[in-house]
């Protein structure tokens, strides 16, 4: 498979193609940044009002005590998972096409986990007490409960963030050195020089570096699977019908990868055009990612069906009620939005015309994002609003501030991602170079073997 | 401290991975020890062409991971049975099955730090100053050029012979670098 299209691609050309848009950002970048900043401002206002007034500004109340905050948390954590899948799991499977997209996907992971982590941090309205989540000696002589999945989640998400950041940074070091050696400004030379740690491309260094990268990939792979498994435990370990199901861990992981690939496409389809990187992030790359969306979307559809089957097969009246209520109760509109976006729309990828059209894939990716947000909404809200006692049933509606936090988290995400595209090489240069045919030490030898 | 105008070593520049690969084999076979090659990306098997031993990093990571997992498990045991024994869910204080996720996560966390800090330590990084940065040509090592450096402190180093060896391997240029 040709990973970089075009005739006689040289190493120098690649460096120039990737570094040029950083040195002179295109108009599209400024437009997107201009849209992201006001949303970030909205988040600032929403946060200030939340701290001033308290969580009463949200729609949560009895019986729905978990509202958009946890929906947004699970949504953003899930987005992150595609980045780790691309960077770690595809690396272990020697999928060389990943080199064109892994850097930006890893950045997406980090920024998505930042957005996710914000919600548990603020959802009590008292972020100055967040240290209660950690096993720290304190004046109350109290310690957290290690039997609670919510505490497992604290460890899972913070480990996930830290390991993703390390993995991303290690990958960046050689490319930051490239920027250091290209930079003409004093600030650029200093900043890139500082963060590239004095990298000088030594083979003695590459040897340890490649081993570290392989080990990090091997560590990140079980980690990413564990993180969404533990996120699903937040629900599955409780005894609530609709949450208490053993299918949750694999179903959440598949959904996470599905939503994450949706977000990768949403980000990369416009960027590859603005940054003129269509020869590096080719149609073939988009097609491969669309196929992953088709696979994981089908897995998610299977999980939806299996949940219904088990609800019926278990013979448990509460369980059956929860699922019939989910599809045909007060929140039917959310359920069918979810099914249309997550199960039906990815099936279009079977058509070659669709999976090779950037525009069609971009629209599809938006549907995937919407559908996966609704999936978390459906799981959280429909299971809570009608539980065991009809006397405590209720209907949950989001408020303006709930919407402001969701839009604001997108503002935070896009601002961070656009700053990343502005100041860091969004293609893993050293890795893309290493998979070019001319990178082989046997290239051009008559008796040499070609891989 | 280094004196001004002292020579650090000799630097040869190559245009392709194939050339540097064969050049490294030649330098290795000539018995040099204090030398290195520099490339914009990891050239496949170049470490073998240089005769380097395998990286000990996996052992460091293994030790770090085991430390993390043990610390995680001990922390949970100590918190749940000694520091704050309280019955939750009707389970025993030492309900080790529930301690698996945090043990696992801390094992991964420590391993990842072991991998990154171990790699930096083995590579003596960060090292913001290096004599090779004195060579203007060396800036292309992060772009599209391949280099071999041999230090004057190598017992086999000889200004004439070493230069002749590097020139015979098809180097684009061979120059001395100041310390």
Task: Describe the protein in words.
The complex is a heterodimer of chains A (451) and B (179). Chain A has 451 residues and is an all-alpha fold. Chain A has helices spanning 11-23, 27-53, 68-92, 102-122, 149-182, 186-195, 203-236, 248-274, 283-313, 317-328, 332-344, 352-355, 358-385, 400-423, 429-434. In chain A, 69% of the residues lie in helices and 0% in strands. Chain A is globular, with a radius of gyration of 23 Å. The N and C termini of chain A lie close together (11 Å). The relative contact order of chain A is 0.17. The mean pLDDT of chain A is 92. Chains A and B meet through α1, α5, α7 and α15 of A and α1, β2, α2, α3 and α4 of B.
Which tags fit this structure?
heterodimer; A: 451 residues; mainly alpha; B: 179 residues; alpha+beta
Residue share in β-strands of chain A: under 5%
Number of helices of chain B: 5
Number of helices of chain A: 15
Spans of chain A of at least 5 consecutive residues whose pLDDT stays below 50 are none
Distance between the termini of chain B: 10 Å
Question: Judging from the principal axes of the Cα atoms, what is the shape of chain B?
Answer: elongated
What spatial form of chain A do the alpha-carbon principal axes imply? globular
**Chains forming the largest contact:** A-B, 71 and 72 residues
Biggest pleated sheet of chain A: none
Class of secondary structure makeup of chain B: alpha+beta
């Amino acid at each position: 498979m040709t990973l970089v299209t075009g005739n006689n691609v040289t190493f120098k050309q690649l460096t120039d193609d990737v570094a040029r848009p950083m040195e002179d950002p295109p108009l599209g970048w400024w437009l997107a940044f201009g849209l992201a900043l006001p949303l970030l401002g909205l988040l600032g206002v929403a946060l200030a009002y939340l701290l001033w007034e308290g969580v009463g500004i949200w729609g949560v109340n009895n019986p729905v005590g978990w509202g958009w905050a946890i929906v947004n948390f699970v949504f953003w954590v899930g987005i992150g998972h595609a980045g780790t899948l691309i960077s770690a799991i595809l690396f272990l499977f020697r999928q060389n096409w990943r080199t064109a997209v892994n850097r930006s996907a890893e950045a997406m992971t980090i920024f998505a986990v930042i957005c996710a982590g914000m919600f548990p941090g603020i959802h009590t309205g008292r972020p100055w007490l967040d240290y209660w989540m950690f096993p720290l000696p304190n004046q109350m002589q109290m310690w957290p409960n290690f039997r609670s999945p919510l505490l497992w989640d604290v460890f899972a998400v913070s480990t996930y963030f830290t390991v993703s950041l390390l993995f991303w940074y290690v990958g960046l070091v050689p490319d930051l050195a490239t920027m250091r050696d290209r930079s003409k400004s004093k600030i650029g030379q200093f900043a890139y020089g500082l963060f590239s740690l004095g990298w000088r491309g030594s083979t003695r260094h590459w040897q340890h570096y490649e081993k570290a990268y392989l080990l990090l990939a091997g560590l990140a792979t079980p980690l990413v699977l564990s993180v969404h498994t533990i996120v699903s435990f937040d629900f599955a370990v409780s005894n609530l019908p609709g949450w208490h199901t053993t299918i949750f861990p694999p179903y959440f992981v598949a959904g996470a990868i599905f939503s994450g690939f949706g977000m990768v496409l949403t980000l990369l389809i416009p960027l590859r055009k603005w940054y003129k990187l269509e020869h590096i992030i080719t149609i073939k790359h988009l097609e491969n990612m669309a196929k992953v969306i088709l696979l994981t979307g089908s897995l998610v559809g299977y999980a939806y069906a299996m949940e219904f089957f088990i609800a019926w097969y278990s013979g448990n009246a509460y369980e059956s009620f929860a699922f019939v209520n989910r599809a045909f109760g007060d929140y039917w509109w959310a359920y069918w939005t979810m099914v249309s976006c997550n199960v039906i729309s990815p099936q279009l990828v079977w058509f070659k015309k669709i999976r090779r059209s950037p525009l069609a894939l971009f629209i599809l990716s938006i549907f995937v994002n919407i559908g996966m947000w609704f999936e978390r909404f459906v799981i959280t809200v429909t299971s809570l609003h009608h539980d065991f006692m009809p006397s405590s049933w209720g209907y949950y509606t989001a408020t303006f501030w709930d919407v402001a936090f969701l839009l604001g988290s997108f503002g935070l995400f896009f601002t961070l991602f656009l700053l990343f595209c502005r100041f860091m090489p969004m293609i893993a240069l050293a890795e893309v170079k290493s998979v070019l045919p001319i990178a082989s030490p046997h290239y051009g030898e008559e008796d040499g073997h070609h891989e | 401290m280094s004196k001004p105008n002292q020579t650090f070593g000799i630097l040869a520049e190559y245009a392709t991975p194939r050339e540097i690969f064969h050049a490294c084999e030649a330098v290795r076979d000539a018995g040099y020890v204090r030398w290195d090659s520099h490339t914009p990306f990891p050239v496949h098997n170049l470490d073998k062409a240089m005769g380097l031993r395998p990286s000990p990093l996996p052992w460091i990571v293994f030790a770090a991971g085991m430390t993390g997992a043990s610390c995680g498990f001990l922390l949970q045991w100590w918190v749940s049975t000694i520091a704050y024994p309280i019955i939750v869910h009707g389970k025993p204080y030492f309900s080790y099955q529930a301690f698996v996720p945090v043990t696992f996560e801390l094992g991964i966390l420590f391993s990842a730090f072991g991998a990154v800090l171990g790699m930096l330590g083995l590579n003596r990084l960060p090292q913001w100053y290096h004599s090779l940065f004195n060579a203007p040509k060396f800036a292309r090592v992060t772009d599209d050029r391949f280099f071999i450096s041999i230090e004057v402190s190598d017992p086999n180093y000889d200004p004439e012979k070493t230069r002749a060896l590097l020139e015979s391997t098809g180097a684009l240029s061979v120059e001395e670098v100041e310390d």
